[in-house]
């Protein structure tokens, strides 16, 4: 009996001690559930219906998913473009962020903060990407066109935004420019807090060059930062669309820079086919989570 | 006595110089649109039309900035309206998110109730989804709540972001020892008092960092443009896109707006850079 009431008292104390925490968490949870969890669940439900904001919705099974892969030719273009951009922004952006963060660490201390700021500045001034419109301007007043004309490499200005041959290049250049985000800052911070003792020990143990040092000493210490950077890279790699929409128009000529996300928006906002748009979004979510699981596995192996 | 430096591998002076030159070239590429905006914004109209285009300005003027505030032809509401909307949404949204993220980040680090661990996993997974990616279903919810075309849509939806919560949790774990909290509890302090008087002061760098990131995403209205249809509720980025679509004749004005747009986030970042670096060193995922 006594034991039992002591148990009860402990439980009561435990509950009382945790209540303030629950209250402090509540406001965030409210918004998180309403604007993050619920939207994802709703997408999953809608994806099995022909919901279109006008008629009553019917359950259509996996029809939307079949349509996506078997009869939507434009989705195939969007898929291809998204994968190209995802590789550029994801793995390439990730590695460039790491390499630049590493190189910055090799210059004198006073210059490091300045260099970090220069490379991070496009993320701060994100909307300034609109200015690339002028740099790649289709007339001879564009910086790129005028430069190429002066050098005699072209004879007439190139329509960078609208010519299907070049529009993807424009989107790629601008996307690389924007890919040094909080992952890059995390790498910079990681390099700043590396433990010198490991380097000294490794040098005594016979490290031969800087590459070995990077591989055996730096990488393992940077593991957690690399994981964070990977999440950030995946999140931006598949969120492409705004840049192409602003710089090359919507829809871009011949869908040359059409992306997965723009395809979702097209069906949801202009055709009101919410069921199909949701199926497109759900597959995108799945692809993102799978890439995260895969990359997590690869990085874990690296970190040992 | 300082440790002998020789044990650490070193590089020749030439190697360092090479790295420096490479980083300088990268910096030039990164800063080009920002530099280009600045010189275009300062060019008088005749210099904008000089061919070939110049990457410097001979007679700098503030005409373009003046023009932005008097532009009426291209925009249906004055630029000051967009500016006000941007400032209002950014300030209110940032302050609200700082409160919410600090409280929940602390809870995720120190709360002991069942489900904390799972919740942390879910929050890390949610880092994957930028607002652009969930825009459509969120749009549906926002419209069901009757918030389309209101400031609420711009302020409330970003409050569900998890990156600030995550950064604060990581920082609390390393900066607030359990022993300190226990001592305060034994002295009879309430959890809220502990949060206010012990936790907040020791996680200042993390709060500054979340401030920078939140400020920058709200100021750039990342992922929220689609909720607004009324011109007088739209923010600066919309004005910038509209003006830039006006072509060469509006090049000076567009550049001036982009300069106005980039100054606040850059100023906030430079002011807090050392806090940001300190916080990001705890950003690792294990």
Q: What about the largest sheet of chain B?
A: none
- The coarse overall form of chain B would be globular
Radius of gyration of chain A: 25 Å
Mean pLDDT of chain A: 88
CATH architecture of the largest domain in chain A: Orthogonal Bundle
In the CATH classification, which architecture of the domain at 80-233 and 263-280 in chain B applies?
A: Orthogonal Bundle
Overall pLDDT of chain B, averaged? 89
Poorly predicted regions of chain B: 1-7
| Count of alpha and pi helical runs of chain B | 13
Structure description:
The complex is a heterodimer of chains A (304) and B (286). Chain A folds into 2 domains: 46 residues, no CATH class; 241 residues, MetI-like (MetI-like fold, Orthogonal Bundle), CATH 1.10.3720.10. In chain A, 74% of the residues lie in helices and 0% in strands. Chain A has 13 helices and no strands. Chain A starts with a helix and ends with a helix. By secondary structure, chain B is mainly α. Chain B has a domain of 172 residues: MetI-like (MetI-like fold), CATH 1.10.3720.10. In chain B, helix 4 crosses helix 8 and helix 8 packs antiparallel against helix 11. The interface between A and B is large, with 107 and 99 residues.
């Amino acid at each position: 009996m006594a034991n039992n009431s002591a148990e009860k008292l402990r439980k009561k104390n435990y509950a009382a001690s945790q209540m303030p925490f629950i209250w402090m968490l509540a406001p965030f949870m409210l918004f998180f559930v309403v604007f993050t969890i619920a939207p994802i669940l709703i997408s999953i439900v809608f994806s099995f219906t022909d919901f279109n904001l006008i008629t009553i919705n019917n359950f259509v099974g996996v029809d939307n998913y079949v349509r996506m892969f078997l009869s939507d030719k434009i989705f195939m273009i969007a898929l291809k473009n998204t994968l190209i951009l995802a590789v550029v922004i994801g793995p390439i952006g990730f590695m460039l962020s790491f390499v630049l963060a590493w190189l910055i660490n090799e210059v004198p201390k006073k210059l490091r903060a300045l260099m970090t700021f220069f490379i991070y500045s496009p993320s701060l001034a994100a909307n300034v990407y609109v200015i690339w419109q002028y740099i790649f301007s289709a007339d001879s007043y564009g910086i790129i066109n005028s430069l190429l004309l002066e050098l005699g490499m072209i004879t007439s200005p190139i329509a960078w935004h609208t010519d299907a041959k070049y529009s993807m290049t424009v989107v790629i250049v601008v996307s690389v420019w924007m890919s040094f985000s909080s992952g890059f800052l995390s790498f910079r911070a990681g390099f700043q807090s590396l433990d010198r003792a490991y380097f000294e020990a490794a040098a005594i143990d016979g490290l031969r060059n800087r590459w070995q040092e990077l591989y055996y000493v730096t990488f393992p210490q940077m593991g957690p930062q690399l994981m964070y950077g990977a999440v950030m890279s995946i999140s931006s790699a598949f969120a492409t669309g705004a840049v192409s929409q602003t710089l090359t128009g919507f829809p871009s000529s011949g869908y040359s820079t059409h992306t997965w996300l723009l395809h979702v928006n097209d069906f949801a906002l202009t055709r009101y086919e919410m069921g199909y748009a949701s199926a497109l979004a759900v597959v995108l979510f799945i692809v993102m989570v799978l890439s995260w699981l895969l990359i997590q596995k690869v990085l874990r192996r690296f970190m040992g | 006595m300082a440790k002998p430096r020789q044990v650490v591998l070193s590089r020749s002076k030439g190697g360092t110089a090479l790295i420096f030159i490479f980083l300088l070239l990268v910096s030039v590429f990164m800063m080009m649109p920002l530099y280009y905006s600045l010189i275009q914004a300062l060019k008088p109209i005749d210099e904008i039309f000089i061919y070939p285009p110049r990457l410097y300005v001979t007679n700098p003027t503030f005409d373009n900035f003046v023009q932005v505030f008097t532009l009426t032809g291209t925009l249906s509401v004055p630029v000051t309206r967009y500016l006000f909307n941007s400032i209002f949404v950014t300030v209110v949204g940032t302050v609200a998110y700082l409160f919410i993220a600090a409280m929940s980040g602390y809870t995720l680090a120190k709360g002991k109730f069942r489900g904390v661990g799972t919740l942390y996993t879910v929050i890390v997974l949610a880092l994957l989804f930028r607002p652009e990616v969930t825009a459509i279903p969120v749009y549906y919810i926002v419209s069901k709540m009757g918030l389309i075309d209101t400031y609420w849509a711009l302020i409330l939806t970003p409050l569900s972001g998890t990156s600030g919560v995550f950064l604060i949790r990581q920082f609390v774990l390393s900066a607030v020892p359990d022993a300190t909290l226990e001592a305060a509890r034994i002295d009879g302090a309430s959890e809220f008092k502990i949060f206010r008087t012990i936790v907040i002061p020791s996680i200042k760098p993390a709060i500054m960092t979340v401030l920078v990131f939140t400020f920058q995403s709200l100021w750039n209205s990342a992922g929220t443009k689609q909720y607004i249809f009324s011109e007088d509720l739209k923010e600066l980025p919309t004005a910038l896109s509209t003006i830039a679509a006006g072509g060469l004749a509006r090049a000076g004005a567009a550049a001036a707006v982009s300069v106005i747009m980039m100054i606040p986030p850059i100023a906030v970042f430079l002011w807090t850079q050392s806090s940001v670096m300190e916080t990001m060193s705890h950003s690792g995922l294990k």
